[in-house]
Write a structure and sequence with these properties.
The protein is an alpha/beta fold. The chain has 17 helices and 14 strands.
Length: about 675
C-alpha cells in the first residue's frame, strides 16, 4: 500500500555515479593499467606514480562522498519544511492540485520525505503532482517511519504531534461525505445507473444482481476514485485542518439480509488516515449509518423507518451499534492512530423527534461508559466523544453527560430545509457587500445557539452545514423528489454565476463560518451526474473554492458577524473535565440513575422493553485489520494489532441461539412474545 523508497545501499552499489558499469572497480582498472606483466613497456616514473596514486585517492573519495551524501541529502536534509523537492518555492496560490504527470517518476531516484509549497509529490501509482500550499503547511511521509506525526497543514494549526487546544485552535473542517457511505445527491451517476434505487441498501441489491457490470465491485471502484490523495492535499492547502469521515457499520461486518459491501470500506478509511497524517490533518470518525437505521433517511443506508431505539428491534440494533463503537474505539485508540483520529461521533443524526430524548440519553451514557472503559480518562487517552444533536436545537441537550471526560457537542445546521425564503443573495448586506439578509441571519440564529452550547455543555462544533440557502439541486431531498423553491433555476446554474452572486454566496458562507466557530462543511465534493456536471453546486466546498464563492483563506471569516452588526464572540473557556484535564472524572450519579441501560421504554415497540429481542456477547470479538507496512522496521509496528485494551475481554455481539428475531428494518413480530426469550 505504501510505496517503498529506494535505499541508500541500492543507490551507492548499483548506480554508476561516475560513468562506466555498476560495481566496476576504479582501483582494479587503474591497477591493471599500471602492471602489465610480460609486456615490454616503459614503467612510469616515481613522479607519475605519485600523481597516479593521488588520482586514485581522489576518485575513491568522490565515490564515497556521493554514495554517502546523496542519501543523507534526500532523507535528512530534505526533512526541513523549507527544503522542497523538485522545484523552487513559489507562493501566492493555495491551489493544491498542481499538474499531475501522466508518466511515472523516474526510477532509481530517492523519494523526498517532506516538502512544502512547490514540492513534487509522488503518488502510489508513480505519477506526480505539485503541492501548492501558500499557508506554510508541509507534508511528511517516510515509509520507514509510518507513524511520523510532524506534518502540519498550515501555520495556525498545531502539528499532529502537538496537543489540540480547544478554545484557542479553530476547527476549519470538511466532511468526506458520500465516499464510504453513498448518498444519491453526492454521487448521482452511480445511482442513475439503476433507476428506482433510493439508497445504498437498494443500490447494493441492484448491483448484486448485476454481475455483468461488476456487481458490488462497483462500490469499491467508487471508494478507489471518489476521494484520492490529491483531494487530501487540496484540503490541507485550502487552509483547512480537520476531516469528518462518515462510515457505515458494514465496514466491520454485515449480517444475513444486509446487502452492503462488507469489510471493505475500512481499508479505504485507513488510506484516508495515512493521507491525513501525511498532510497534517486531524480526523473525526463519524458512525454515519447504524444497523436498522437511526432516522429512516437515505444517508443512514436505508430509506424507510427508524429501527434504532425504536420499534421491536430497537434495543437489539442499539446493542450492535454499541459494539461497533467499541470495535472502532479499540482501533483508533492505539498509539499509532490516536493523534490523527482524535474524535469519534456516536451516531449521526438519530431521529430524536421519533426516538425521544430519554432513550438517546441512555444510549449516549452507555456508549460513553463503553468507550472510556477502553480508553481510560484524560488527555491523550483515546478520542473525544462527539454527541450529535438528533436534529434538535442544541439547547435541548443542556446538561448532557455532566462531568463526562472529553465530550463535545455536534450540531447540524441547515436553512435549506426550512421555510422557503426567496431573499436575493445579490442584495447588499449590512456591511455593504452582497449577501442580502443571509449573513446576518446565520450570525443571529447560529452564533447565539453555538455559543450557548459552549457555555452550557462544552466544546461544540458544527459537524454539518452547507453553502445552500435552499433545497435546490439534484436528489437533495431524495431521489426523484424535486424542490418547489422558485429560485432553483438561478441557483443550479452555477456555471453562469456573475461576480455579484459569487460575492453574495461567499459573504453568507463566511458568516456561517464565523457563527459556528468550529465547523465541518458538508461536503468536500459533489460528483457529476450522468449529464456530466455537478448538479448540487452549493454543497461542494471544492467547487466553491475553485470558482470563487468559498474564501481561499477560511480565517477571513473571523469578524464577519461583527461586520454585519451581530456580535458573537466565540466562547473558549471550558470545564477541565471536558478537555481532559481531570484524570478521574465521573458522570453524576443522579444522571446515571435517571438514564439506565436499557432505557425504560422506547417508541413504536409492540411489547414492553423486557420482552424485546436482544443479543448476547458470546461470539468472538471482531478486530479491525491493520495495514501492512512493508518498508518499516518491525519495531515501528510492534504491538499494532487493532485492539488497544487487552483487558477488554467482552465477547462480540451475536443472536441468542433458539430465539426468533424480526427483520432488522421492518421488525414485525410473526408472533408477539409473551415472555423473554433466553434461548434453547
Amino acid at each position: 500500500m505504501i510505496p517503498e523508497r529506494q535505499s541508500s545501499a541500492n543507490l551507492s552499489n548499483n548506480t554508476p555515479l561516475l560513468g562506466g558499469t555498476p560495481n566496476q572497480s576504479v582501483d582494479n582498472n587503474l591497477g591493471n593499467a599500471a602492471s602489465r606483466d610480460g609486456l615490454d613497456e616503459k614503467q612510469p616514473s616515481k613522479g607519475r606514480k605519485r600523481w597516479l596514486i593521488l588520482a586514485i585517492v581522489l576518485g575513491i573519495a568522490t565515490i564515497v562522498f556521493l554514495a554517502v551524501f546523496l542519501p543523507v541529502y534526500f532523507v535528512v536534509i530534505r526533512k526541513s519544511p523549507t527544503a522542497e523537492s523538485g522545484s523552487s518555492t513559489s507562493g501566492g496560490s493555495s491551489d493544491a492540485s498542481g499538474t499531475t504527470a501522466d508518466a511515472p517518476a523516474p526510477s532509481g531516484t530517492a523519494v523526498p520525505t517532506t516538502g512544502g509549497d512547490g514540492s513534487i509529490i509522488t503518488l502510489e501509482n508513480g505519477t506526480t503532482f505539485t503541492y501548492r500550499n501558500s499557508f506554510s503547511g508541509f507534508w511528511v511521509h517516510n515509509p520507514e517511519e509510518p507513524f511520523n506525526n510532524n506534518a502540519r497543514p498550515n501555520e495556525w494549526t498545531p502539528p499532529l504531534n502537538t496537543s489540540w487546544r480547544w478554545g484557542v485552535d479553530r476547527i476549519y473542517g470538511v466532511n468526506l461525505g458520500g465516499w464510504l457511505v453513498l448518498e444519491p445527491f453526492i454521487s448521482p451517476e452511480i445511482f442513475q445507473r439503476y433507476p428506482g434505487v433510493r439508497d445504498e441498501f437498494s443500490l447494493s441489491q441492484a448491483m448484486v444482481a448485476d454481475t455483468a457490470n461488476g456487481g458490488l465491485r462497483q462500490i469499491e471502484e467508487h471508494y478507489q476514485t471518489f476521494i484520492t490523495e490529491v483531494d487530501i492535499a487540496e484540503i490541507a492547502a485550502a487552509g483547512l485542518n480537520f476531516l469528518r469521515v462518515p462510515i457505515g457499520f458494514w465496514a466491520i461486518e454485515t449480517w444475513d439480509g444486509e446487502p452492503y459491501l462488507a469489510k471493505t470500506s475500512w481499508t479505504y478509511f485507513l488510506r484516508a488516515v495515512e493521507w491525513a497524517r501525511k498532510y497534517g490533518l486531524r480526523i473525526l470518525l463519524d458512525l454515519h449509518a447504524v444497523p436498522g437505521s437511526q432516522n429512516g433517511l437515505n444517508h443512514s443506508g436505508k430509506l424507510g423507518t427508524t429501527n434504532f431505539l425504536a420499534g421491536n428491534m430497537g434495543i437489539a440494533n442499539a446493542e450492535r451499534t454499541l459494539d461497533n463503537l467499541r470495535v472502532f474505539t479499540q482501533f483508533i485508540s492505539q498509539p499509532q492512530y490516536r493523534d490523527v483520529v482524535v474524535a469519534i461521533g456516536l451516531v449521526n443524526e438519530p431521529m430524536a423527534s421519533q426516538i425521544g430524548l430519554d432513550p438517546l440519553h441512555s444510549f449516549n451514557l452507555r456508549a460513553y461508559d463503553i468507550i472510556r472503559s477502553v480508553t481510560g480518562y484524560g488527555e491523550g487517552n483515546g478520542p473525544y466523544i462527539a454527541v450529535q444533536d438528533g436534529l434538535q436545537s442544541l439547547g435541548r441537550w443542556d446538561g448532557i453527560l455532566p462531568g463526562g471526560d472529553r465530550v463535545i457537542m455536534d450540531g447540524h445546521a441547515y436553512f435549506a430545509f426550512g421555510d422557503v425564503n426567496p431573499s436575493p443573495m445579490v442584495a447588499l448586506a449590512e456591511d455593504g457587500l452582497p449577501g442580502g439578509t443571509w449573513p446576518a441571519q446565520a450570525c443571529r440564529v447560529w452564533g447565539a445557539e453555538f455559543n450557548n452550547s459552549r457555555s452550557n455543555i462544552g466544546p461544540t462544533v458544527s459537524g454539518e452545514f452547507s453553502g445552500a440557502p435552499n433545497d435546490c439541486g439534484l436528489f437533495i431531498r431524495a431521489v426523484n423528489v424535486e424542490s418547489f423553491h422558485p429560485q432553483c433555476a438561478e441557483y443550479n446554474n452555477w456555471e453562469n454565476y456573475n461576480s455579484t452572486m459569487k460575492a453574495g454566496l461567499q459573504s453568507w458562507i463566511m458568516a456561517s463560518f464565523d457563527a459556528f466557530g468550529d465547523f465541518f462543511f458538508w461536503t468536500w465534493k459533489i460528483g457529476p451526474s450522468q449529464a456530466g456536471r455537478v448538479e448540487a453546486p452549493l454543497w461542494s466546498y471544492k467547487l466553491g473554492l475553485d470558482n470563487g464563492w468559498i474564501p481561499r483563506d477560511p480565517r477571513d471569516s473571523v469578524g464577519k458577524c461583527a461586520a454585519v452588526g451581530v456580535s458573537t464572540p466565540v466562547q473558549g473557556t471550558f470545564d477541565a473535565f471536558r478537555t481532559g484535564a481531570v484524570p478521574s472524572p465521573t458522570v453524576s450519579a443522579a444522571y446515571s440513575a435517571r438514564y439506565p441501560w436499557p432505557p425504560t421504554s422506547i417508541p413504536s415497540a409492540d411489547v414492553p422493553i423486557s420482552l424485546l429481542p436482544t443479543f448476547t456477547n458470546t461470539a468472538a470479538a471482531v478486530t479491525l485489520p491493520v495495514p501492512t507496512y512493508t518498508s518499516a522496521p518491525a519495531s515501528a509496528t510492534a504491538g499494532l494489532d487493532g485492539w488497544f485494551n487487552n483487558d477488554d475481554r467482552t465477547g462480540g455481539i451475536v443472536t441468542v441461539a433458539g430465539c426468533p428475531y424480526p427483520n432488522f428494518y421492518t421488525a414485525t413480530f410473526a408472533t408477539a412474545p409473551t415472555a423473554a426469550c433466553t434461548g434453547s
